[in-house]
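Quick entry, no commentary yet.
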Amino acid sequence: MKVLLNELKQHIEPDKAAFFPQFFKAFPGGYGEGDQFWGIRVPPLRQLAKKYRQLPLNKVEILITSPIHEQRLLALFILRLQFEKGDTDTQHAIIDFYLTHLAGVNNWDLVDGSAPYLLGTWLLDKDTQLLWTLANSEQLWSQRIAVMSSFAFIKQGRYQLTLDLAAHLLQHPHDLMHKAIGWMLREIGKRDLATELAFLDQHYTNMPRTMLRYAIEKFDEPLRQAYLKGTR
């Protein structure tokens, strides 16, 4: 681990270390309050994940429980690589590990970079009640994990889970959930516009504005304006 951490430190950029706490709202009262950053970009983290893809889970645990944001992100990238190449037993162990360490998956980039590729993919042929348990929690990041995990289903042309979660969480108070749901609706629309339109036509007048804007971002301008002006 000492060698890995020393390599990680070689990629520190002081200007990023100063910028990231603001970008990820790590200031008092922000959604990432208390998080710590070394100032390391994503590309070197991905490179290190490939180099240390065989890191045992007891060492990955040191990273995922670290107060340093980039160490936790590196842990998740390593888990993704191990999951992709692992057999069923390995994948099961990784998912158990992931669920046990959700406290470390506590910002939007950590959620978005892991949930669809780990939990979502694992559940493709399994009961999805776990996602509803996460969605019904009072923890923002658990709720976002539920929505983002459904991206794996969207990629397989299976939209109902996302639509049901979106309807259930439609009036969520946090804009990070508005953005996640709007993004997933947009992803459905890229594959099946009629399905997205049917959902929007039913819900858009009650939908938070940010969620709607994300959902219709790629629409032709006349259609986008119709939704924004409430004339659809």
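second:
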Amino acid sequence: MKRKRILSAVLMCAVGVGICGLYCGLTPRRYTVSTPKLNAEEKLRIVMLSDLHSYVYGNDQTPLVRRVRELQPDIIALCGDIVDDKQPQDGAKLLLKQITEIAPCYYVSGNHEYWSSEPEQIFRMIDSYGIHVLHNERERITVDGREYVICGVDDPAAYGDRVPSSYGNAAPYRKALQRFDDLFGDDAFHILLAHRPEYIEEYAAHPFDLTLCGHAHGGQWRIPYIMNGLIAPNQGFFPEYAGGQYQYGAMTEIVGRGLVLDWKPRVFNPPEIVVVDIVPK
């Protein structure tokens, strides 16, 4: 009898762990970045979305849009692969046409937009909804009297081929990042929107205080506190930058685990809405 109780308890624990591990509800993940560039009472909230791959939540993205609205962002950052190269664009369009009602939106490309046969059409479509498409560009914004610079760099796939394991041509990617070096000495808080987190060393060599990325999909399978991710594009097995907050010198990089749900199961890795609060140090 005692042995049966133990076996039942073990089985229940295993079932519970399995249910928790396969949970795929939309999950806000919150981060706080403090900086001496802000004064008391100044703050900025960014909601970052990445790697939607045209997936649709509900019938019309209402669950996703509702969660974003509840988080009350000052700006929304879209860090690539919002549109997929194989799936219809409808899911992306349903999201894009609604989120501009919540806050100003800024977008940078991912590899899948470039892997499609029509990246320029995709960028025009995104722009048509009033979203700021940043092609190696920057925009200055002011929130509550404080100035911020939003920078965006095109994905390396813009310079490389379509091979999934390719980093693209690194030389033009580095040159694109150098366009922002005139910001050295600028007093504003500098935010870089990029797609690939593995270039953290490159980003940190430029005047960015915060970099937001996606691409790694959280490493697909995770074991909390033990393994942050099993495998990620371009990083291979046990990726160093699968998801979370990383510090490299004076720069903070935050990597979102993405939103798509597809044939690959996500284990302890629910789809993620990233919330970043920038606050005074």
